[in-house]
Design brief:
This protein is of the alpha/beta class. Helices cover 49% and strands 17% of the residues.
Amino acid sequence: MTRSVWWRRFFVRGVFWRQGLRFAVLNVPPWTEPIVMAFWSTFFLVWGPGRRGVMRNLKVIKPGSLAIANLFRCYRVFWNYAWTIADNVRFKELRTIPDWEFTGREYFEDMQTRQGAILLTAHMGSYDLGAHLFSETSTRRIVMVRAPEADPQTREFEEHHGVDSLRIEFNTRATELALDLLETIREGGIVAIQGDRVTGSISSLPATLFGKPTTVPAGPFALALAARVPIYPVFVVRLGRRRYRLMTSRPIEITRSRNRDDDFARAVEQWMAELERVVQECWFQWFTFEPYWPEPAR
């Protein structure tokens, strides 16, 4: 291992901190968990870029809020982030299943009856845990698409500690992956995609969130149009210690017209309305550590 690789594991996005949290979850008494989470959250609060990114986003979500109030809110974001990682470890390695409740169950059940569908979600709650549980309780094949971890060792750690019942794909091979996902849907499977943030060089569509212009990934909407299937907004929100809520909303149907841009614009508008509603209510679980909206031109 080279010196640069050796040091990289201790960076904020490095694998060391995931491994440390995993060790604590598996080895410390359950009653000490809040102490472990408090330490882990406090450490990440000193991560300057991540802290500033969350606070910039909070200024838009909570207009007029004081900086000191947003600093405490920022800590709450990191606190929930630590708990969701820990719950994911407990599920993967100890098969500890959290308590669940549902809202919009009728839409969730409708998705199960479809011959293929797209599940669109955000960087909220525990995306991984929700997908793993869904794959184990459903007879449908599910493919989860996510952005790769920035650190190669962290990505390897996440892949190694996955489960066999769920296929995970990283959005690094756009054309080839799109064809694979289209085939999955046509075979009756469900594709789960995070649709709130554009990463890397993937295609995007213009959108508006909290009254400010932004972009969202174009992939889910292009895939839905090509496969002629609905998009189901689904959010997994942490309620408390090993307690979660799965929220499913009215499906987004992309109807074909002569103007594909208009088709996408209507679908994106419906998606952003659902995303804004949930982020407004559960801002403390929107794990977006980079500034979501571009800096205004000076």
